Amino acid sequence: MATIAELAGVSKPTVSKVLNGRSGVALETRRRVEALLREHGYRRPDKTPASATLEVVFYGLESHLAIQIMRGVEQVARRHELAVGFIEANGRTAPGRSWAEQLLARHPVGVIAAFSRFTPEQHAQLAASGIPLVALDPTGEPMHTIPSVGATNWSGGIAATRHLLELGHRRIGVVSGPPDYVAARARLEGCRAAMEIAGLRLDERLVRSGRFFFERGRDFGLELLRLPHPPTALVCGNDLQALGVYTAAWQLGLRIPQDLSVIGFDDIDNTRWCSPPLTTVRQPLTEMGTAAAEMVLALAAGETLLQPRVELSTTLVVRESTAPPAGA
Amino acid sequence: MATIAELAGVSKPTVSKVLNGRSGVALETRRRVEALLREHGYRRPDKTPASATLEVVFYGLESHLAIQIMRGVEQVARRHELAVGFIEANGRTAPGRSWAEQLLARHPVGVIAAFSRFTPEQHAQLAASGIPLVALDPTGEPMHTIPSVGATNWSGGIAATRHLLELGHRRIGVVSGPPDYVAARARLEGCRAAMEIAGLRLDERLVRSGRFFFERGRDFGLELLRLPHPPTALVCGNDLQALGVYTAAWQLGLRIPQDLSVIGFDDIDNTRWCSPPLTTVRQPLTEMGTAAAEMVLALAAGETLLQPRVELSTTLVVRESTAPPAGA
C-alpha cells in the first residue's frame, strides 16, 4: 500500500479510502490509484477481515427472476456458512452513500451482479478493492474482463423454433428483447437460423424488438396479430413478453393455442399460473446462481478459473400454448 | 454471563455456546440457560460486534411475495448502511449447520421472519442471543411474544365482498386459505360479515378452504363452478388461488368477468400479467417490509416499541376481473 501511495503521489490514508470505497478522494486521484492497484495486482491482505457475506446485486427490472437465482446462491453460501446479501440497484437516488459505496465498505467475500450493468467505474472500484465479481447473464454489453455465467440462448432460440416447425407452423413471428442485449440477440438469431436450416426464411415484417416487459409483448402482439397476414405462432424474448402476447390475443378474441401458438423464454413461476400453461425455453436460473456463487468463491480463494465464461443449457418445456396451426 | 453460568450450574463457555447458537450443549441445559438469560433480561454487551446485517427469513412457499418485501427492508437498511441478508427456510436438510444455527452465529443486527413459523426453540435461541426478531404477517399461529407487522385482512375481506355486492352479485363463493392461518381466517370472516351487514348470508356450500396455492384455486374453482347453482363471483384467499380460478374458468369455457367475477388478495405483479387484469385486495408488502425493518432496528437500539403489533391498510384495486353478473 505504501508503494502504491508513493507511486500515486498520495498519502496512505488516501489509498485506503480508495480501497474501501470511501468518499473524499478527487475522481482523478481515485482513478490513478485504482489503475496502480490494478497494475500491481494488489490483493487485500488476508488479515483484512471480509464480512462473511456473498452479495447479489439485481437490476430492478428483472427482479421477478431474482428468487430463483437467490435460491441457487444461497445453497452454496449455506454450505460455506456465508450470509447472502440482496441489493436492488435500480437507480433510486437516496440520501447518504450509494449502494455501491456501501457495498464496497462492507467488504463482502464476493459480489454477483445479476442482470446488472456495473459502470466501468464501479467495476474498477471492486477490482481495486480485491473483491471478486462474477456477472450472472449480463444481458447488456459483455464486459470480457469479468467472469460470467449465462445460458445457451442461441440454442434455446433454435429449440423453440424447431418445435413450431415440427407442429407445422411456417408464418412464425418473433417478439424479441432489446437489440443491444446480447442474450436477446442470441435468441432471435437462433430462431432465424432454425428457419434457414429448414429451408425457410424469417419474415422481417413479423419481427419486433423491445424491452423485456409485459407491455411490450402486449403492444407488439397487437401489432403483429392485426396484420393482414398475421403469424400463426410467436416466439417471445422472455416469459413476460409472452404473457403480454396472451393479453393481446385475449383482447382480439383469439384462442391460444387454437388460433395462435406462443413460446416464452426463462420459465418463471408464472408460466404455470397462466391459461393455458406456457410452453417456454427454461433457463436454469437456480443452477446459474449456484455456478456464479461457486465461481466467486473460487476467485475469493485465490484460484484461477479454468473457464471465465460458463454457459448452462437451456431446455424446451412443452406445455399447452403450442399446437399445430389452424387448418394444418 | 458469570452470574448466569453460576445460576445454571454450567461453565461460562457453555453460556457462550448457547448465546452464539453453537452446538454441543444438551437440549435441557440449553433451555435452562436460555430461560435464565430471559429472566435476567440479558443483553449482549455493546462490545460484542454485531455484523452490520438485517436478515430476512422467508418460508419457501410464499416466496413470490419476497421481492416486494425485500425492497421495503432494503430501503431502511440502506439508510442505516446495513446489508440485507436473504434466507429461505424451506426445510431442506443440508449437511452442516442449519440455517438457524448459522444465522445465530452471524449475530445480525436483527431478524425479520416473513411468513415463517419459527419453532419455539428457534425463537428462544434468538431471544437468548439478544438478537431482535420481528414477524412479518405470520399467517400461522400468532406468537404474541414477538412484535409483528401485518395488514388489515378482515377489512380487505369486507372491501372485496362489498365491491361484488355493489355490482349486483348475490351468489358469492369463497376460495379461502388454510383455516388455521389467522390471516386467511380474517379474510373469510370479513366476507361473511359484509354479506350479513347487507342482510344476506354466505352459503357455506360455496366456501372451500385450502393452501395458498395456484392448484388449490384451480381445483376448488372447478368444484364450485360445476355445482348445479354455481356462484357468479369468487373471492379468493390470495392471488395465486385467484389465478387458479382463472384456469378453472378457462377449462370450463367460462369468460371472466362476463360469466364469473374473481377477486384476489395480495396484489403481486402477476395480477397485471393475466387476462383480464385481476381485481385484488392490495397488501402493502413493500411498506410492511419497511415497517418491520424500522421496528427491528428500534429494538436493536434498545427502544421499547409503542405498539408490538402494527397493521397496515389493505386497499381494493379494481381492475377488469369483476363486472355485474350475467342477466343483472
Automatic annotation (TrEMBL), chains A, B:
Q: Which GO terms describe its molecular function?
A: DNA binding
Q: Which domain of life is it from?
A: Bacteria
Q: HTH lacI-type domain: from which residue to which, for each copy?
A: 1-54
Keyword Transcription regulation attributed:
yes
InterPro entries, sorted: HTH_LacI, LacI/GalR-like_sensor, Lambda_DNA-bd_dom_sf, Peripla_BP_I
Q: Which UniProt keywords apply?
A: DNA-binding, Transcription, Transcription regulation
UniProt-listed SUPFAM superfamilies: lambda repressor-like DNA-binding domains, Periplasmic binding protein-like I
Question: Which PANTHER family did the record assign?
Answer: LACI-RELATED TRANSCRIPTIONAL REPRESSOR, LACTOSE OPERON REPRESSOR
Protein name as annotated: LacI family DNA-binding transcriptional regulator
Give the originating organism: Plantactinospora sonchi
Q: Highest lineage ranks of the organism?
A: Bacteria, Bacillati, Actinomycetota, Actinomycetes, Micromonosporales
